[in-house]
Design goal:
Elements lengths: L3 H22 L6 H22 L8
Length: 61
């Protein structure tokens, strides 16, 4: 069973990060500004996950 938060927050956020990563690596070289954008987006994803859901996106088992 999949929680609603996974479908409404985690999957779309990680999908956007993956698409940007693929775009950034399309040329075969990651530029500094692209790396900074990815790092900031990843940190923002975890901070928002902690604030909104109170935990890291990990398995509870």
């Amino acid at each position: 069973m999949v929680d609603d938060e996974v479908l409404t927050w985690h999957v779309p956020a990680l999908f956007v990060l993956t698409i940007f990563s693929a775009f950034a690596l399309y040329t075969g070289r990651l530029k500094r500004w692209q790396g900074i954008v990815l790092l900031v987006a990843y940190i923002a994803y975890f901070v928002i996950s902690f604030v909104a859901f109170g935990a890291a996106p990990a398995d509870d088992d």
